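We emphasize that the prediction below concerns an isolated chain of 105 residues; any contacts that depend on oligomerization or on bound cofactors are therefore not represented. The input was used exactly as deposited, without trimming of termini.
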Amino acid sequence: MSVAGKKLGLLLSARPETPSFQQGLRLAEAALGRGVDVYLYCVDEAVWGVGCPELQALKSRGLKLYACAYGAHRRNIPLSDHAVFAGLTVVSDLAAATDRFLSFN
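Result of the prediction step, given as a token string:
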């Protein structure tokens, strides 16, 4: 069964150095490699990882990257072009519009 063209939504809330964050990145990488459209939203502590080289490399491969604007503001992380900074309604939209939605906490 081919998964190419399917949509995967991922929510990361853990800091970049945690196993949960890294597992989310590995899943995103594997899915992109199989032709899946991957949408990843960083919230809470995961906003620290938006600029990490691994995540930016996935973005260059087609990952659609979003981050919580409020979470970035609370942590004094400047908004940048590393991700689309948006509110939590985007998470709801991603959960509704993707074939699978997984959370890594």
